[in-house]
Amino acid sequence: MVVSIDRYTAVKMYDKVRKYWQKYMEELRKQLAECQPDEATEIKKKLYYMQETDMAVVVSSGQNEVEEFKKKGLDILPHRKRMINEDLDKKFKDPNDPLRIVFVCAMWLTGFDAPAVNTIYLDKPMQNHTLMQTIARANRVFKDKTCGTIVDYIGVFRNLQKALAIYATPAAGGSVDTPVKEKAALIDELKKAVTETIKREKLVLDWRKRQQTRAAVLITIQDSLDRELPRAYTPEIFKRKCDLVYQHIYDCYYSAGQSVYSQAG
Fold first, then answer.
1. In angstroms, rounded to a whole number, what is the distance separating the alpha carbons of residues 252 and 93?
2. What is the chain's alpha carbon radius of gyration, rounded to the nearest angstrom?
3. Whose CA is closest to 255, among 211, 205, 213, 218?
4. How far apart are the C-alpha atoms of 18 and 143, rounded to whole Å?
């Protein structure tokens, strides 16, 4: 779920995500054509998931909205038709439905129960009760999911301590624990750990073609995240987080004429 500041921005974000979604699928197709046989299955799985995934805009209607959106270079009509003709509410709540990403600004933030929702991207100022309710959209327990992920693009977590002080139950001693950690600190720690592995293994241009060195990088990521990720994460969620970090390193630390060792510094 992507939460934008207004209806226009919600449609803009939909258009932007669709654009880069298609671009990334093209990159995956290129990787599939050039990858090693043991890597093809994972790339195919990711590509199929992205091809299958549906997205939708869910915003309230307004008077003369078609003209108002046109003035901003946007087309609300196809989104409005979907909102009228399809039961998007039911689809999004169904974990087996391909509708996996919705773009909203106010609708579905309160009084909307979809336990399967795992991640909310916040790009809208919020505080107090509204902030707590929005966070709760992703924090429902569902099957192997014990908690959700909130990605804060605008800095609303500056208001989180105040909201927790009002609505959260204090722990022993009267204080309220905050779930927020400084991302920079976690990134620095992971970077140091990966760099040490690179130096120790002397990984070079073709490091990702060697099973032993690929495994060394993955183990380093797992060790680092095991110390920092919430203990509430199930083994399946933990594995997904590690795989995402590994894929990022795999994609970024490989380019013609450069060694991983020199890039790592």
1. 35
2. 21
3. 205
4. 29
Place of tokens 């979907």: 82
Distances (CA, A) of 129 to 40, 110, 122, 162, 175: 46, 10, 15, 10, 19
Helices 128-138 and 160-167 pack at an angle, to 10 degrees, of 90
* CATH topology (fold) of 2-167: Rossmann fold (3.40.50)
Judged by DSSP in three states, 16 sits in helix
The residues with which 104 forms a beta bridge, in sequence order, are 3
CA–CA separation, 102 vs 145, rounded Å? Answer: 19
Give the pLDDT confidence of 91-131 residue by residue, as tens digits. Answer: 999 999 999 999 999 888 877 888 888 889 988 888 777 77
| pTM to 2 decimal places | 0.65
CB of 130 within 8 A of CB of 110?
Answer: yes
Nearest-10 Cα torsion for 190, 193, 197, 200: 150
Q: In what order do the strands lie in the sheet with 2-4?
A: 54-57, 99-104, 2-4, 119-123, 149-152
Beta-sheet pairing, 119-123 with 99-104 = unpaired
Phi–psi pair at 86, nearest 5 degrees: -115, 150
Q: Which residues pair with 142 in a beta bridge?
A: 145
- The string of pLDDT tens digits covering residues 135-167 is 778 878 888 777 788 888 887 776 766 666 666
